[in-house]
Amino acid sequence: MKVSIQPTVLKGVIQAPASKSSMQRACAAALVAKGISEIRNPGHSNDDKAAMDIISRLGAKLEEQATDLLRFNSEGIHPVAPFIDCGESGLSIRMFTPLVALSDKEITIKGSGSLVTRPMDFFDEILPQLGVKVKTQGGKLPLVIQGPLKPATISVDGSLSSQFLTGLLLAYAAAGASNVSIHVNDLKSRPYIDLTLDVMKRFGLKTPENRDYREFYFDDSVTAAEAIHHYTVEGDWSGGAFLLVAGAIAGPITVRGLDIASTQADKAIVQALMQANAGIAIDAKEIQLHPSALSAFEFDATDCPDLFPPLVALAAYCKGVTRIKGVSRLAHKESDRGLTLQEEFGKMGVVIHIDGDLMRIEGGKGLKGAAVSSRHDHRIAMACAVAALKATGETSIEHAEAVNKSYPDFYNDLRALGAAVSLNHQFKFHE
Protein backbone atom coordinates (compact mmCIF):
# COMPACT_ATOMS: atom_id res chain seq x y z
CA MET A 1 0.00 0.00 0.00
CA LYS A 2 1.49 3.29 -1.11
CA VAL A 3 1.24 6.89 0.00
CA SER A 4 2.63 9.63 -2.22
CA ILE A 5 3.81 13.00 -0.95
CA GLN A 6 4.57 16.15 -2.91
CA PRO A 7 6.80 18.95 -1.59
CA THR A 8 4.61 21.19 0.56
CA VAL A 9 4.64 24.21 2.84
CA LEU A 10 2.88 23.31 6.09
CA LYS A 11 0.77 25.70 8.10
CA GLY A 12 -1.62 25.36 11.01
CA VAL A 13 -2.14 23.96 14.49
CA ILE A 14 -2.14 20.25 15.32
CA GLN A 15 -2.67 18.16 18.48
CA ALA A 16 0.00 15.57 19.24
CA PRO A 17 -1.22 11.95 19.37
CA ALA A 18 -1.66 10.04 22.62
CA SER A 19 1.48 8.32 23.89
CA LYS A 20 1.42 4.56 23.41
CA SER A 21 4.22 4.26 25.99
CA SER A 22 1.93 5.97 28.50
CA MET A 23 -1.25 4.21 27.30
CA GLN A 24 0.15 0.67 27.39
CA ARG A 25 1.62 1.15 30.86
CA ALA A 26 -1.72 2.54 32.03
CA CYS A 27 -3.49 -0.58 30.73
CA ALA A 28 -1.05 -2.83 32.61
CA ALA A 29 -1.43 -0.78 35.79
CA ALA A 30 -5.24 -0.85 35.50
CA LEU A 31 -5.05 -4.64 35.31
CA VAL A 32 -2.99 -5.11 38.48
CA ALA A 33 -4.38 -2.17 40.50
CA LYS A 34 -7.50 -3.86 41.78
CA GLY A 35 -10.73 -1.92 41.49
CA ILE A 36 -11.94 0.75 39.06
CA SER A 37 -9.51 2.59 36.77
CA GLU A 38 -10.37 5.45 34.44
CA ILE A 39 -8.00 6.22 31.56
CA ARG A 40 -8.55 9.52 29.80
CA ASN A 41 -7.22 10.56 26.37
CA PRO A 42 -6.70 6.89 25.42
CA GLY A 43 -4.72 6.00 22.31
CA HIS A 44 -6.08 3.91 19.46
CA SER A 45 -2.94 2.69 17.71
CA ASN A 46 -2.49 -1.01 16.97
CA ASP A 47 -0.17 -1.33 19.98
CA ASP A 48 -2.75 0.33 22.22
CA LYS A 49 -5.46 -2.02 20.95
CA ALA A 50 -3.18 -5.01 21.62
CA ALA A 51 -2.69 -3.89 25.22
CA MET A 52 -6.44 -3.51 25.74
CA ASP A 53 -7.06 -6.97 24.32
CA ILE A 54 -4.37 -8.47 26.54
CA ILE A 55 -5.74 -7.09 29.80
CA SER A 56 -9.26 -8.24 28.86
CA ARG A 57 -7.88 -11.77 28.36
CA LEU A 58 -6.14 -11.54 31.72
CA GLY A 59 -9.33 -10.60 33.57
CA ALA A 60 -9.89 -6.84 33.35
CA LYS A 61 -13.41 -5.83 32.31
CA LEU A 62 -14.04 -2.81 30.09
CA GLU A 63 -17.10 -1.16 31.64
CA GLU A 64 -17.25 2.03 29.60
CA GLN A 65 -15.65 3.27 26.41
CA ALA A 66 -15.81 6.71 24.84
CA THR A 67 -13.57 8.82 22.63
CA ASP A 68 -11.88 10.38 25.64
CA LEU A 69 -12.43 7.77 28.37
CA LEU A 70 -11.92 4.09 29.16
CA ARG A 71 -13.21 2.62 32.42
CA PHE A 72 -11.87 -0.76 33.59
CA ASN A 73 -12.77 -2.98 36.53
CA SER A 74 -10.14 -5.51 37.59
CA GLU A 75 -9.58 -7.97 40.41
CA GLY A 76 -6.01 -8.67 39.37
CA ILE A 77 -4.63 -11.39 37.11
CA HIS A 78 -7.38 -13.95 36.44
CA PRO A 79 -6.93 -15.23 32.87
CA VAL A 80 -10.10 -15.95 30.92
CA ALA A 81 -8.27 -17.22 27.81
CA PRO A 82 -5.40 -19.71 27.27
CA PHE A 83 -3.29 -17.19 25.35
CA ILE A 84 -2.57 -13.52 24.79
CA ASP A 85 -1.51 -11.92 21.50
CA CYS A 86 0.90 -8.99 21.64
CA GLY A 87 0.64 -8.22 17.92
CA GLU A 88 3.83 -6.41 16.92
CA SER A 89 4.29 -4.58 20.22
CA GLY A 90 7.72 -5.02 21.78
CA LEU A 91 6.60 -3.22 24.94
CA SER A 92 3.58 -5.49 25.35
CA ILE A 93 5.56 -8.72 25.07
CA ARG A 94 8.20 -7.55 27.53
CA MET A 95 5.83 -5.87 29.99
CA PHE A 96 2.96 -8.35 30.07
CA THR A 97 4.97 -11.60 30.19
CA PRO A 98 5.94 -11.10 33.88
CA LEU A 99 2.29 -10.19 34.59
CA VAL A 100 1.06 -13.38 32.89
CA ALA A 101 3.53 -15.21 35.17
CA LEU A 102 1.55 -14.08 38.24
CA SER A 103 -1.06 -16.72 37.35
CA ASP A 104 -0.74 -20.43 38.10
CA LYS A 105 -2.40 -21.22 34.76
CA GLU A 106 -0.37 -22.17 31.70
CA ILE A 107 -0.66 -19.29 29.23
CA THR A 108 0.76 -19.03 25.71
CA ILE A 109 2.09 -15.65 24.57
CA LYS A 110 1.96 -14.94 20.85
CA GLY A 111 3.04 -12.15 18.55
CA SER A 112 3.37 -11.31 14.88
CA GLY A 113 5.52 -9.46 12.38
CA SER A 114 9.05 -8.64 13.48
CA LEU A 115 8.17 -9.61 17.05
CA VAL A 116 8.57 -13.31 16.21
CA THR A 117 12.25 -12.74 15.41
CA ARG A 118 13.14 -10.67 18.47
CA PRO A 119 15.16 -12.39 21.23
CA MET A 120 13.16 -13.45 24.30
CA ASP A 121 15.85 -15.44 26.11
CA PHE A 122 15.75 -12.83 28.89
CA PHE A 123 12.68 -14.65 30.17
CA ASP A 124 14.42 -18.05 29.93
CA GLU A 125 17.12 -16.69 32.21
CA ILE A 126 15.14 -14.62 34.73
CA LEU A 127 11.66 -16.07 35.24
CA PRO A 128 12.81 -19.54 36.45
CA GLN A 129 14.65 -17.72 39.27
CA LEU A 130 11.21 -16.50 40.36
CA GLY A 131 9.54 -19.92 40.34
CA VAL A 132 8.06 -19.58 36.85
CA LYS A 133 8.06 -22.32 34.21
CA VAL A 134 9.07 -21.00 30.78
CA LYS A 135 9.11 -22.62 27.35
CA THR A 136 10.36 -20.75 24.28
CA GLN A 137 11.19 -21.66 20.72
CA GLY A 138 14.95 -21.23 20.97
CA GLY A 139 14.53 -17.91 22.77
CA LYS A 140 11.80 -16.78 20.37
CA LEU A 141 7.98 -16.69 20.32
CA PRO A 142 5.63 -18.26 21.15
CA LEU A 143 6.28 -18.36 24.90
CA VAL A 144 4.49 -20.72 27.28
CA ILE A 145 4.41 -19.37 30.84
CA GLN A 146 3.18 -20.87 34.11
CA GLY A 147 3.55 -19.22 37.52
CA PRO A 148 2.88 -18.04 40.07
CA LEU A 149 5.80 -15.61 40.11
CA LYS A 150 7.39 -15.22 43.55
CA PRO A 151 9.38 -11.99 44.02
CA ALA A 152 13.02 -12.50 45.00
CA THR A 153 16.23 -10.50 44.90
CA ILE A 154 17.69 -10.89 41.41
CA SER A 155 20.11 -9.24 39.00
CA VAL A 156 19.11 -8.44 35.42
CA ASP A 157 20.81 -7.07 32.31
CA GLY A 158 19.33 -3.71 31.33
CA SER A 159 21.43 -3.15 28.19
CA LEU A 160 19.00 -4.58 25.61
CA SER A 161 15.82 -2.84 26.71
CA SER A 162 14.32 -1.20 29.79
CA GLN A 163 10.97 -2.79 28.89
CA PHE A 164 11.86 -6.08 30.59
CA LEU A 165 12.47 -4.18 33.83
CA THR A 166 9.12 -2.37 33.45
CA GLY A 167 7.34 -5.73 33.41
CA LEU A 168 9.21 -6.99 36.46
CA LEU A 169 8.53 -3.82 38.46
CA LEU A 170 4.80 -4.09 37.77
CA ALA A 171 4.77 -7.81 38.55
CA TYR A 172 6.66 -7.37 41.82
CA ALA A 173 4.23 -4.63 42.89
CA ALA A 174 1.22 -6.80 42.02
CA ALA A 175 2.70 -9.75 43.91
CA GLY A 176 3.25 -7.71 47.07
CA ALA A 177 7.05 -7.82 46.94
CA SER A 178 8.63 -7.18 50.34
CA ASN A 179 12.29 -6.68 51.31
CA VAL A 180 13.56 -7.72 47.88
CA SER A 181 15.52 -5.90 45.18
CA ILE A 182 15.94 -5.97 41.44
CA HIS A 183 19.58 -5.17 40.66
CA VAL A 184 20.15 -3.83 37.15
CA ASN A 185 23.35 -3.78 35.14
CA ASP A 186 23.90 -1.19 32.39
CA LEU A 187 20.33 0.10 32.22
CA LYS A 188 19.42 1.84 28.97
CA SER A 189 16.48 4.19 28.34
CA ARG A 190 16.26 5.33 31.95
CA PRO A 191 13.52 7.91 31.25
CA TYR A 192 11.16 5.06 30.34
CA ILE A 193 11.66 3.61 33.82
CA ASP A 194 10.82 7.03 35.24
CA LEU A 195 7.58 6.83 33.25
CA THR A 196 6.85 3.34 34.59
CA LEU A 197 7.40 4.42 38.20
CA ASP A 198 5.22 7.49 37.69
CA VAL A 199 2.37 5.37 36.28
CA MET A 200 2.69 2.93 39.20
CA LYS A 201 2.38 5.77 41.70
CA ARG A 202 -0.66 7.24 39.95
CA PHE A 203 -2.44 3.88 40.08
CA GLY A 204 -1.67 3.45 43.78
CA LEU A 205 0.72 0.54 43.23
CA LYS A 206 3.57 -0.21 45.58
CA THR A 207 6.53 1.63 44.10
CA PRO A 208 10.14 0.64 44.79
CA GLU A 209 12.94 2.89 45.93
CA ASN A 210 15.07 3.80 42.92
CA ARG A 211 18.71 3.58 43.95
CA ASP A 212 20.46 5.33 41.09
CA TYR A 213 18.90 2.98 38.50
CA ARG A 214 21.18 0.20 39.74
CA GLU A 215 18.80 -1.22 42.31
CA PHE A 216 15.03 -1.06 42.78
CA TYR A 217 14.18 -1.97 46.37
CA PHE A 218 10.71 -3.01 47.55
CA ASP A 219 10.40 -2.45 51.31
CA ASP A 220 7.98 -4.14 53.71
CA SER A 221 5.36 -1.38 53.66
CA VAL A 222 1.80 -1.94 52.52
CA THR A 223 0.17 0.39 50.00
CA ALA A 224 -3.41 1.31 50.74
CA ALA A 225 -5.79 0.55 47.88
CA GLU A 226 -7.81 3.37 46.35
CA ALA A 227 -11.45 3.02 45.39
CA ILE A 228 -10.84 4.45 41.93
CA HIS A 229 -7.76 5.35 39.93
CA HIS A 230 -7.66 8.23 37.45
CA TYR A 231 -5.01 8.57 34.75
CA THR A 232 -4.68 10.83 31.72
CA VAL A 233 -2.53 9.54 28.87
CA GLU A 234 0.13 12.04 27.89
CA GLY A 235 0.71 13.46 24.45
CA ASP A 236 3.27 11.36 22.60
CA TRP A 237 6.76 12.81 22.22
CA SER A 238 7.73 9.86 19.98
CA GLY A 239 5.06 10.63 17.38
CA GLY A 240 5.17 14.34 18.15
CA ALA A 241 8.87 14.40 17.24
CA PHE A 242 7.94 13.85 13.59
CA LEU A 243 5.53 16.79 13.69
CA LEU A 244 8.16 19.02 15.28
CA VAL A 245 10.78 18.09 12.67
CA ALA A 246 8.20 18.59 9.91
CA GLY A 247 7.57 22.09 11.22
CA ALA A 248 11.29 22.87 11.41
CA ILE A 249 11.72 21.75 7.79
CA ALA A 250 8.48 22.85 6.11
CA GLY A 251 6.51 24.96 8.61
CA PRO A 252 5.36 27.18 10.18
CA ILE A 253 3.18 25.01 12.42
CA THR A 254 2.11 24.84 16.07
CA VAL A 255 2.02 21.54 17.97
CA ARG A 256 -0.11 21.22 21.09
CA GLY A 257 -0.46 18.52 23.75
CA LEU A 258 3.22 17.84 24.50
CA ASP A 259 4.25 18.26 28.14
CA ILE A 260 7.76 19.69 28.38
CA ALA A 261 7.94 18.32 31.95
CA SER A 262 7.17 14.76 30.78
CA THR A 263 9.39 11.83 31.78
CA GLN A 264 9.21 10.49 28.20
CA ALA A 265 12.69 9.97 26.79
CA ASP A 266 11.78 11.33 23.38
CA LYS A 267 11.17 14.87 24.59
CA ALA A 268 14.94 15.10 23.96
CA ILE A 269 13.94 15.96 20.38
CA VAL A 270 13.67 19.55 21.63
CA GLN A 271 17.35 19.48 22.57
CA ALA A 272 18.27 18.20 19.11
CA LEU A 273 16.17 20.87 17.38
CA MET A 274 17.85 23.59 19.41
CA GLN A 275 21.30 22.20 18.63
CA ALA A 276 20.37 22.24 14.94
CA ASN A 277 19.41 25.94 15.24
CA ALA A 278 15.80 25.17 14.34
CA GLY A 279 13.20 27.91 14.57
CA ILE A 280 11.41 26.83 17.77
CA ALA A 281 9.45 28.62 20.50
CA ILE A 282 8.04 26.80 23.52
CA ASP A 283 5.38 27.85 25.98
CA ALA A 284 3.21 26.03 28.51
CA LYS A 285 0.60 24.79 26.04
CA GLU A 286 2.24 24.64 22.62
CA ILE A 287 5.43 24.48 20.58
CA GLN A 288 5.84 26.68 17.52
CA LEU A 289 8.15 25.69 14.65
CA HIS A 290 9.27 27.57 11.56
CA PRO A 291 11.96 26.92 8.96
CA SER A 292 15.45 28.34 9.48
CA ALA A 293 19.02 27.73 8.32
CA LEU A 294 19.66 24.34 9.93
CA SER A 295 23.16 23.23 10.88
CA ALA A 296 24.69 19.84 11.74
CA PHE A 297 24.55 18.69 15.34
CA GLU A 298 25.79 15.94 17.64
CA PHE A 299 23.37 13.87 19.69
CA ASP A 300 23.44 10.78 21.92
CA ALA A 301 20.27 8.74 21.29
CA THR A 302 21.29 5.75 23.42
CA ASP A 303 18.46 6.39 25.90
CA CYS A 304 15.96 7.46 23.22
CA PRO A 305 16.59 5.20 20.19
CA ASP A 306 13.11 5.81 18.76
CA LEU A 307 14.30 9.33 17.91
CA PHE A 308 16.75 8.06 15.28
CA PRO A 309 14.23 8.23 12.37
CA PRO A 310 13.05 11.82 12.98
CA LEU A 311 16.63 12.84 13.80
CA VAL A 312 17.81 11.49 10.44
CA ALA A 313 15.03 13.40 8.67
CA LEU A 314 16.16 16.55 10.49
CA ALA A 315 19.87 15.91 9.84
CA ALA A 316 19.20 15.47 6.12
CA TYR A 317 18.36 19.19 5.96
CA CYS A 318 21.19 20.34 8.26
CA LYS A 319 24.28 21.75 6.57
CA GLY A 320 27.33 19.66 7.47
CA VAL A 321 27.82 16.22 9.02
CA THR A 322 25.53 15.28 11.90
CA ARG A 323 26.72 12.62 14.35
CA ILE A 324 24.24 10.49 16.30
CA LYS A 325 25.34 7.93 18.87
CA GLY A 326 23.36 4.83 19.85
CA VAL A 327 23.14 2.75 16.65
CA SER A 328 23.53 -0.45 18.71
CA ARG A 329 20.00 0.13 20.07
CA LEU A 330 18.43 -0.15 16.60
CA ALA A 331 18.92 -3.79 15.61
CA HIS A 332 15.88 -5.29 17.34
CA LYS A 333 13.16 -2.88 16.22
CA GLU A 334 10.46 -3.39 13.58
CA SER A 335 13.37 -3.37 11.15
CA ASP A 336 17.13 -3.11 11.59
CA ARG A 337 16.66 0.65 11.71
CA GLY A 338 20.27 1.69 11.26
CA LEU A 339 20.61 -0.13 7.95
CA THR A 340 17.06 0.69 6.89
CA LEU A 341 17.59 4.43 7.41
CA GLN A 342 20.86 4.24 5.51
CA GLU A 343 19.28 2.46 2.55
CA GLU A 344 15.94 4.27 2.29
CA PHE A 345 17.36 7.76 2.78
CA GLY A 346 20.10 6.80 0.35
CA LYS A 347 17.38 6.52 -2.30
CA MET A 348 16.58 10.18 -1.62
CA GLY A 349 20.21 11.16 -2.06
CA VAL A 350 21.26 11.31 1.61
CA VAL A 351 24.63 9.74 2.41
CA ILE A 352 24.67 7.98 5.79
CA HIS A 353 27.71 6.26 7.31
CA ILE A 354 27.50 3.75 10.15
CA ASP A 355 30.63 3.08 12.16
CA GLY A 356 29.94 0.85 15.14
CA ASP A 357 27.68 2.78 17.51
CA LEU A 358 27.96 6.04 15.53
CA MET A 359 25.87 7.25 12.60
CA ARG A 360 27.06 10.14 10.43
CA ILE A 361 24.60 11.91 8.14
CA GLU A 362 25.83 14.22 5.37
CA GLY A 363 23.12 16.85 5.22
CA GLY A 364 22.16 20.10 3.59
CA LYS A 365 22.72 18.96 0.02
CA GLY A 366 19.07 18.69 -0.96
CA LEU A 367 16.82 15.62 -1.19
CA LYS A 368 15.20 14.13 -4.25
CA GLY A 369 11.81 12.47 -4.30
CA ALA A 370 12.07 8.71 -4.68
CA ALA A 371 10.25 5.42 -4.30
CA VAL A 372 11.03 4.20 -0.77
CA SER A 373 9.72 1.49 1.56
CA SER A 374 8.82 1.56 5.23
CA ARG A 375 10.02 -2.06 5.52
CA HIS A 376 6.84 -2.46 7.61
CA ASP A 377 8.37 -0.10 10.21
CA HIS A 378 6.08 2.71 11.38
CA ARG A 379 8.87 5.12 12.26
CA ILE A 380 10.62 4.63 8.93
CA ALA A 381 7.36 5.45 7.12
CA MET A 382 6.96 8.67 9.11
CA ALA A 383 10.61 9.68 8.70
CA CYS A 384 10.41 9.29 4.92
CA ALA A 385 7.15 11.25 4.82
CA VAL A 386 8.64 14.14 6.77
CA ALA A 387 11.79 14.14 4.63
CA ALA A 388 9.61 14.21 1.50
CA LEU A 389 8.07 17.56 2.46
CA LYS A 390 11.02 19.55 1.06
CA ALA A 391 12.42 17.04 -1.44
CA THR A 392 12.53 17.74 -5.17
CA GLY A 393 9.65 15.84 -6.77
CA GLU A 394 7.25 13.21 -5.53
CA THR A 395 8.10 10.58 -2.91
CA SER A 396 6.12 7.35 -2.72
CA ILE A 397 6.19 5.17 0.39
CA GLU A 398 5.50 1.45 0.07
CA HIS A 399 3.88 -0.29 3.07
CA ALA A 400 2.79 3.13 4.30
CA GLU A 401 0.09 1.58 6.51
CA ALA A 402 2.82 0.67 9.01
CA VAL A 403 2.02 3.95 10.82
CA ASN A 404 -1.07 2.29 12.31
CA LYS A 405 1.20 0.61 14.83
CA SER A 406 1.77 3.84 16.75
CA TYR A 407 0.23 6.86 15.00
CA PRO A 408 -2.77 5.90 12.83
CA ASP A 409 -3.76 9.54 12.26
CA PHE A 410 -0.33 10.56 10.95
CA TYR A 411 -1.23 11.11 7.29
CA ASN A 412 -4.51 12.78 8.23
CA ASP A 413 -2.60 15.15 10.49
CA LEU A 414 -0.12 15.99 7.73
CA ARG A 415 -3.02 16.70 5.37
CA ALA A 416 -4.65 18.89 8.04
CA LEU A 417 -1.46 20.97 7.99
CA GLY A 418 -1.69 21.31 4.22
CA ALA A 419 0.57 18.49 3.07
CA ALA A 420 -0.07 17.12 -0.42
CA VAL A 421 -0.62 13.50 0.58
CA SER A 422 -2.33 11.05 -1.74
CA LEU A 423 -2.87 7.31 -1.56
CA ASN A 424 -3.70 4.38 -3.75
CA HIS A 425 -7.21 2.92 -3.70
CA GLN A 426 -6.20 -0.02 -1.47
CA PHE A 427 -5.46 2.07 1.57
CA LYS A 428 -7.93 4.05 3.63
CA PHE A 429 -6.92 6.75 6.04
CA HIS A 430 -7.72 5.92 9.65
CA GLU A 431 -11.02 7.33 10.79
Strand percentage lies at 15-25%
User: How can the largest sheet be summarized?
Assistant: 4 strands, mixed
CATH architecture of the largest domain: Alpha-beta prism
Quote the distance from N terminus to C terminus: 17 Å
Any idea of the CATH class of the largest domain?
A: Alpha Beta
Indicate the low-confidence ranges by residue numbers: 425-431
The assigned structural class equals alpha/beta
Number of domains: 2
Shape: globular
How is the CATH topology of the largest domain named? UDP-n-acetylglucosamine1-carboxyvinyl-transferase, Chain
What's the arrangement of strands in the largest beta sheet? 22-23-1-24
Count of individual helical segments = 12
Q: Give the CATH superfamily of the largest domain.
A: Enolpyruvate transferase domain
Mean pLDDT across all amino acids: 94
- What Rg do the Cα atoms give? 21 Å
**Percent helix among the residues?**
25-40%
Would you count the extended β strands for me? 24
Describe the structure.
This protein has 431 residues and is α/β, with parallel strands linked by helices. It has two domains: 2-17 and 236-423, UDP-n-acetylglucosamine1-carboxyvinyl-transferase, Chain (Alpha-beta prism), CATH 3.65.10; 20-217, UDP-n-acetylglucosamine1-carboxyvinyl-transferase, Chain, CATH 3.65.10.10. The protein is 29% helix and 25% strand. The chain has twelve helices and 24 strands. A four-stranded mixed beta sheet has the order 22-23-1-24. A four-stranded mixed beta sheet has the order 2-15-17-16, covered by helices on one side.
